[in-house]
Amino acid sequence: MPFTFHTHSGQFCRHASGNLEDVVKQAVARKMLVLGLSEHVPRSRAQDLYPEEEGMTPTDLHTTFADYVAEARRLRAKYAGQIEIVIGAETEYITCASLAETKRLREQYGLDYIVGSLHHIDEMPLDFSQPLYADIVERFGGDRAAMFRRYFEQQYELLRALQPEVVGHFDLVRIFHPYDAGVADPLCASDEVRRLALRNIEYAIGYGAVFEINSRAWKKGLRDAYPQRDMLREILERGGRVTISDDSHGPDDVCMHYGRLLGYLREMGIDRLHYLSRGGDGDDDGDKDGARRARPCVLDNATEHEFWQANGIA
């Protein structure tokens, strides 16, 4: 599809690769309509740094984020005639202080939008590696339903506090679930887990969120994009708005698995997508009161868009 709202680069994220400008160039080459930039908000506690960030400090992360916003604004101006760029950030909810800090950062930098993603459960990294995921399972005494419940409880807190425009990888908690071992999926086996997930869906729909259909799940070996088809169906049946994202971690990931994504959209009967746009406003400073600048727009007949043919996708 001609957009993505979930992207990273090695220039500003240690587990990604390449420069941010190369991500933009690749999006232009792919004939994207809108590109959302969404580097991670900085973490402010030393204990929350990842092994890949050895030698860095929280101050370094804040400096890196400021550099990211400055570079994103430069690129928006440079490529204005070729692609619309909206500038956002992806959340890091580790403690309640993380949510308050994200609000401050949004106002400080006048960000166009927020991708609301949960990467931790009770301050423990969820998606960094399979061993760290296993540590969370152990923390809950092997009770995967309890772990999933906690994920959706904290996701609800994030949604309520920030009301992000884009809900990132809604069911990321499934990332390292051992499906091949025949272990029951709590979202299917636990009525309570399902109730919490549906509550979150309904809340996000209520304030106008857009749910991303995130193709990176296929890189992790999952059957479907995030959200998996059961949760995506619940979103659609309730009238939820959806977009698509590649969750790219460098220029080589731009439009990653979008051919497979087209098939998923058709299988799920999706032909209307939403995307964020600033509506042609050229002011780079953001609203002075931190109000949202990017707003959802509709793209009908999405699976027939010329983008697919231009990229050799049938």
From TrEMBL:
E.C. no: 3.1.3.15
Catalytic reaction equation(s): L-histidinol phosphate + H2O = L-histidinol + phosphate
GO terms, molecular function: histidinol-phosphatase activity
Alphabetized UniProt keyword annotations: Amino-acid biosynthesis, Histidine biosynthesis, Hydrolase
GO cellular component: cytoplasm
One Pfam family here: PHP
Residue ranges occupied by any PHP domain in the UniProt entry: 5-215
SUPFAM superfamilies: PHP domain-like (SSF89550)
Pathway(s) the chain acts in: Amino-acid biosynthesis; L-histidine biosynthesis; L-histidine from 5-phospho-alpha-D-ribose 1-diphosphate: step 8/9
GO BP terms, alphabetized: L-histidine biosynthetic process
Descriptive protein name: Histidinol-phosphatase
Enzyme class label: hydrolase
